[in-house]
Specification:
7 helices, about 65% helix, Four Helix Bundle (Hemerythrin (Met), subunit A), two-stranded antiparallel ribbon, mainly alpha
Length: about 170
């Protein structure tokens, strides 16, 4: 049995982003139950040189929409990084899921060897489609989702592995 690029990307991305939104829902319940200032969680970072929780979620969103758009050969939607609440982050994730799901299997399948060039400043990184998906995008989304989970767990949000994994 083989797995297509679409099967390896879109369902996995949707699952990861929906699970992240679920974890954020538990964070909102924690904020309300403990009467916390939401910024306590939104701006929390595990170490001074790490990104804060809001940025972790934004990067997971950006990576998901970016990989699908690049594979499909379409423009990457631009989102403002202006989320100020858990609800804003969940809305961003929902918008990202809707975009990812709008891309068809026909647009993604067969992109295993497609040239993908990612520019960061004056540096270019060259990938094949499969290399970008499996070696960069999926690990990046899981990393930033894990960091969000770790931040929330560190701050006392009652979440567990099942919340992170969801129902794959």
């Amino acid at each position: 049995m083989t797995i297509s690029m679409y099967q390896a990307s879109v369902p996995r991305l949707v699952n990861a982003l929906n699970n992240l939104s679920h974890v954020l829902g538990k964070a909102q319940a924690h904020i309300e139950a403990k009467k916390l200032d939401p910024k306590t969680l939104l701006e929390f970072r595990l170490f001074p040189d790490m990104l804060h929780m809001t940025r972790q979620v934004q990067i997971a969103s950006d990576t998901a929409k970016g990989v699908v758009a690049r594979l499909a050969g379409i423009e990457i939607p631009a989102y403002e990084d202006n989320e100020q609440s858990v609800a804003d982050l969940q809305a961003r994730l929902a918008k990202t899921v809707a975009f990812v799901q709008s891309v068809s299997a026909a647009q993604v399948d067969g992109t295993e060897d497609k040239a993908i060039i990612v520019k960061r400043g004056d540096k270019e990184t060259h990938y094949t489609g499969m290399q970008f998906l499996l070696g960069h995008a999926l690990p990046n989304i899981y990393f930033h989702s894990s960091m969000t989970y770790a931040i929330l767990r560190h701050c006392g949000v009652e979440i567990g592995k099942r919340d992170y994994l969801g129902n794959p």
